[in-house]
Design goal:
Blueprint (H helix, E strand, L loop, with lengths): L6 E12 L2 E13 L4 E5 L6 H8 L7 E6 L2 E2 L5 H11 E4 L11 H11 L5 H11 L15 H14 L4 E5 L7 H18 L2 E5 L3 H6 L2 E6 L2 E4 L4
Parallel strand pairs: 3-8, 3-9, 6-7, 7-8
Antiparallel strand pairs: 1-2, 1-4, 4-5, 9-10
Helix pairs in contact: 3-4, 3-5, 4-5
């Protein structure tokens, strides 16, 4: 039986203008990710890894080509349409954390669930913070947390929504080795227990080696590093 991949990019091209020069970041890139797959995207700094993640998540729009989610057009939708799918299907861990400074750690984690009127927002959020080792810091504001702790709040926020797809940009980048290993285990527990599809941008070779699929982004195109 044939089925559509959960994430698919076709002929994806992205460019920006700098000093009147068109800089092409991605060039007719193709990618297909099955439900429940673990995908690590590696590459040198500036190769466009974070840009690719933003395009797959509908946070940016390609110059040409398309992104589909569950076989349905995604990149062609307006911002409201893309936001609705993100809220329903996706979780995110950003390099910049994207925490709201006026909200506590618990309130930051609860926010996506509250936007969906989830009846167990507080319970799920508290459990997620405990999972990442921040059960004692739930009332702290981002400015009272270290960079690594803010990263863990962002990860807890992504876990709490129990997404079908988790996009993570350097999820262990601001963490010490021990905490990073703990987060890696949590990521793969999500994948094993809930079937969450993992799409990870990382410089962490240990994390990349744990994934089913390892892709290298170079010169605007993806190359598979391991055998299927």
């Amino acid at each position: 039986m044939q089925y559509s991949p959960i994430v698919q990019a076709q002929n994806l091209t992205y460019e920006f203008v700098s000093h009147d020069n068109h800089i092409r970041v991605l060039h007719h890139l193709n990618l297909s990710i099955s439900a429940g797959e673990q995908v690590a995207i590696i590459g040198s700094s500036g190769s466009g890894k974070s840009t690719l993640l933003s395009l797959l998540a509908g946070l940016d729009i390609p110059a040409s080509g398309s992104v589909q989610i569950d076989g349905e057009p995604f990149s062609q939708l307006d911002e409201d349409g893309r936001a609705a799918i993100r809220a329903k299907r996706m979780g995110f861990v950003f390099q910049s954390f994207q925490l709201l400074p006026s909200l506590t750690a618990l309130e930051n984690v609860m926010l996506p669930l509250q936007l969906k009127n989830h009846p167990d927002a507080a319970t799920l959020s508290l459990a997620a913070l405990r999972q990442v080792g921040l059960g004692e810091r739930v009332k702290h504001y981002p400015k009272q947390l270290s960079g690594g702790e803010q990263q863990r709040v962002a990860i807890a926020r992504a876990f709490a929504t129990q997404p079908a797809i988790l996009f993570a940009d350097e999820p262990t980048g601001n963490l010490d080795h021990t905490t990073g290993q703990r987060i890696i285990e949590l990521l793969f527990e999500m994948n094993a227990n809930a079937g969450t599809t993992l799409v990870l941008v990382t410089h962490d070779i240990h994390l990349a080696n744990r994934c089913h699929t390892q892709l290298k982004l170079e010169h605007g195109a993806l190359t598979r590093l391991n055998q299927p």
